[in-house]
Amino acid sequence: MRVIALLAWFLSLVAAQPALAASSPHLQTLEQQLSALLASRSGDVGVAALDLATGETVAINGDKAYPMASTMKVAVAAAYLDQVEAGRRTLNDRIAGQSARSLIESMMIKSNNQSTDLLIANLGGPRAIQQWLEHNQIRGVRVDRNIARLLADKRDLWDLRDSASPVAMVQMLRSLDKGNILTPANRAYLLDVMARCSTGKNRIRGMLAGVPIAHKTGTLNNYTSDVGYLTLPDGRRLAVAFFARGGTDRPLTIAQAARTIYDGFAGWVRSVSFADSMARAISAN
């Protein structure tokens, strides 16, 4: 009986910890810091960060599905820009009396829901966005409803509709930044409107004053998210995703996790640079 009791106690400890994704070996210290931070919080938080230059990744609850809320607007903007590249649409097209450019900027900068739904309808509805994701082999990201329907439906923060895992989100961000989906001009435009995001300044931006950030926030009752790109001191860039449901102080948790990730990746880059310099100095003697 004592063995069974000890086993049950051990399993309860394991279950209490946030699930770790397969983070890169070089980032194990950062993974442990993030795990300790999130274990001290009452909510269910998923985090992922990916170095766009090396592919190095760290994640906590990285493969768990969370609501996207308004972070799905990144996919809507990208799908429209893809249509621009195909010659089927332009940023000057008029939609309900407004230019597509003004709708995209309203959607991405101010998170305007009406602008979002006008763009979704123009593209052919939520199914068209999902087909665009599948065509570009972006997996683990689901778009099932427009914003009006999502907000009208009974709220269920565990609903798999309109969800993404943190790892899937950073992989989508990587595809948009490094893949062949968008031309450099349209990629630069998307990053520019994300850099001008005016919502959720207490999330990713909360503890990273002066750091170049391009992002998109999401908010529902009892839910907070933020996804986007961070630039490290040496110019390297990270794709990051933070999803938090339940609990308290969700924006603060995201801000602290973002700062931890920034410091962790920046510290690792500095240590690698120092090691490389030492190796060159030794080989020169």
Order of helices and strands: HHEEEHEEHHHHEHHEEEH
Read across the widest sheet, the strand sequence of neighbours is 2-1-9-8-7
Mean pLDDT: 89
What is the CATH superfamily classification? DD-peptidase/beta-lactamase superfamily
If helices are DSSP runs of H or I spanning 4 or more residues, what is the number of helices? Answer: 10
Question: How would you classify the helix and strand content by structural class?
Answer: alpha+beta
Cα end-to-end separation: 65 Å
- Morphology: globular
Just give the CATH class: Alpha Beta
Please render the helix and strand layout as text.
Elements: H1 2-16, H2 28-39, E1 44-51, E2 57-60, E3 66-67, H3 73-85, E4 94-95, E5 98-99, H4 100-109, H5 113-123, H6 126-135, H7 147-152, E6 163-164, H8 166-178, H9 184-195, E7 213-220, E8 223-231, E9 237-245, H10 250-284
Helix pairs in contact: 2-10, 3-5, 4-5
